[in-house]
Amino acid sequence: MNSIRVRIGVLGLALLAGLSAPTTGAAAAEAAPAPTVEEQRLDKAVPQEILRRSGFDALTTQFADDLAAARSYAQAHRIVVREGSALWRRAVDRAQGRGPAGGDLSRDDDRPLYWARLSMTRDVRTWEPEFGLSTGQRSALLDALERGSRGQTDIRYPHGSHGSHGIRQILVTGFDPFTLDRDIRISNPSGATALALDGTVIETAEGPARVETAVFPVRWQDFADGTVERTLRPYLKQVDLFTTVSQGRVGRFDVERTNGAWRGGFGDNENVSRTETIPVADPASQPQWTTTTLPYKEIVAANTGRFPVYDNTSVTEIPAGGTQSVVRPDGPTPGSTARAGGGGDYLSNEIAYRATLLRDRLGLHDVLPGGHVHTPVLQFGTGNTDPATGSVTDPEFVRNRLDIIAQVRTILKVAAGSPVTS
Questions:
Q1: What share of the chain is helix, strand, coil (3-state, %, to 5)?
Q2: Cβ(54)–Cβ(106) below 8 Å
Q3: Residue 252 to residues 6, 179, 315, 387, 408: CA-CA distances in angstroms?
Q4: Which of 128, 204, 284, 395 is deepest in the core (most CB within 10 A)?
Q5: Integer Rg of the chain from CA
Q6: HSE (CB half, 13 Å, CA atoms) of 230?
Q7: Residues 6+ apart with CB under 8 A from 67
Q8: Three-state DSSP class for 324?
Q9: Strands annotated E in 134-186
Q10: What pLDDT score does 40 carry?
Q11: Who contacts 293 (Cβ-Cβ below 8 Å, separation ≥6)?
Q12: What pTM did the predictor assign?
C-alpha cells in the first residue's frame, strides 16, 4: 500500500512539473501560423528589388540559415536577439555612410530595414523546428526580433542624463512605411530620419545634444499592447527633449499642438481597422486631449529648411453636450470628446498622445519638451508617380527624403536650444 502511495505521489509531482515547466519539447510544439498580411507582401517584385539593391537579401538569407541550424529554443533566442540588433545597426551604419552600401540603392533609404525585418519575422513565424515551439515561445522570439531590429533595445546615453558632461539627450521616434497596398514602393521619411540621426550629436544653442532613435510599426495591436510606453518609459526622465515623428501632409511640416484620445479606423499595415478610444492603462484617469511642450513658436519662426513649418492647432471634437463632430481650428473646447488631434486619428496621433500622456503621468509636463512633428509626404519625381509602371527610386525622391531628414535635424537643433513650452 505504501509503495502505491509513493508511485501515485511521484506521478502527481510529474504532472505538476509538466504543467509548470517551459514547453520546450517536441510534444509541446504547436503548428506554425501562416505569414501575416504584411509579410505576404514580401514576395512581390518591389520588396525583392529593394532587398537585392541594398544587399539586405544576404542578411535575410544568412538569418534563415542560422535559424534553421538552431537545435534548441535557447539557441534560437540567442540568434534572434543577436541578428535583430545587428539588422538595426547595419541599417543605421548604411544610412550614416559606414560600411559597404551593398548595392546601388541610396544609403538614406529606410525600406531595406523594413522589408528585411519582415523576411526575418516570416521565417520565425513559419519555422517548425524538430524540438518544437509553443505559441508563447514563438511570440517571445518575434517580440525580441521586433524590438531589436527597431532600435528599441539599442537606446544608449553613455554620458548619463539631463546634460551630464555637457551633453544633452534627445529621443526621436519614426515609423515604418505604410499604405503599401496603394503603392508598395513607399518609403517613410520618419523612419529614414531615425536611421540617419541615431547616435549622432547635434550642436545646439545649449551645447551638444546626442540623439537616440527607435522605429515603430504601423499596427493598431502593437500600440494597444503597450509598445510605445514600454520603449519610452525608461528614458523620459533621462532625456532633455523627445519628438515623435511621422509622415503627414504634402509640402509642409507641422508641429501638432494637441493630440486626441481617438482611433479613427483607418486600416493599418495588416489591413486591420480600429475605431475606439485609444486603449491605455488606467482609463479612468485618461484625458481626451494632451498637448505638446515642444517650443513650437521658436520652431515655426526659425529657418529650418525648404519646407514651411506650421503650428497646427486644429482638432476635431464632439462638444460637451453635443453629438456631432465639429472641426475646431484653435484647439478643443472645455469638456469636449476627441475625434481627431491636430495629427489626425491614426497612429501618428496615437504615438503623440501616448508619449505625451506618459510624460504627464510621470510628472514631466512642465520640465520636458516633447511632442509630435509631421514631415511632408515623401513624393516620387515627375513621371514616376504610377506604382504600376514606376521605378523604386529616382533622383527627386532621394533629394526630397534627404531634405526632410536635414530639416528634422535642424528642427531638433532649434527645439533643444529653446525653453520648454508648458
A1: 45, 15, 40
A2: no
A3: 77, 19, 18, 23, 12
A4: 204
A5: 23
A6: 12
A7: 76, 79, 80, 123, 124, 127
A8: coil
A9: 168-175
A10: 98
A11: 356, 359, 365, 366, 368, 369, 370, 371, 420, 421, 422
A12: 0.92
What single letter denotes the amino acid at residue 213?
T
CB atoms within 10 A of CB 168: 24
**From CA 318, how far away is CA 338, in angstroms rounded?**
7
Q: Is 200 helix (H, G, I), strand (E, B) or coil?
A: coil
Mean pLDDT of 289-308: 98
The whole-angstrom distance between residue 253's C-alpha and the CA centroid of its chain comes to 19
Residue written as grid cell 529593394: 50
The percentage of residues in the chain with a pLDDT greater than 70, rounded to a whole number, is: 91
- What 3-state class would DSSP assign to 67? helix
Which is nearest to 256 in space by CA: 339, 343, 340?
A: 343
Band of residue 136 on the pLDDT scale cut at 50, 70, 90: very high
Per-residue pLDDT reduced to its tens digit, 27-54: 457 889 999 999 999 999 999 999 999 9
Let me know: does 159 contact 55? Beta carbons within 8 Å: no
Contact 88, 148 (CB under 8 A): yes
**Which domains does the chain possess?**
23-149 (no CATH), 164-416 (3.40.630.20)
Residues 6 or more apart in contact with residue 323 via CB below 8 angstroms: none
Euclidean distance between CA atoms 265 and 262, whole angstroms: 9
Greatest Cα pair distance, the chain, in angstroms, is: 90
- Please calculate the CA angle 170-338-314 and round it to the nearest 5 degrees: 65
Contact status, residue 217 vs residue 146, Cβ threshold 8 Å: yes
**Contact present, 414 and 302 (Cβ < 8 Å):** yes
List the one residue out of 132, 127, 99, 95 whose CA is nearest residue 110.
95
The per-residue pLDDT for 165 is 63
Reduced to 3 states (helix: H, G, I; strand: E, B; else coil), residue 132 is coil
DSSP structure class, residue 43: G
CA separation (Å) from 332 to 256, 343, 420? Answer: 13, 13, 21
List, in sequence order, the alpha helices (H) in 178-219.
Answer: 189-197
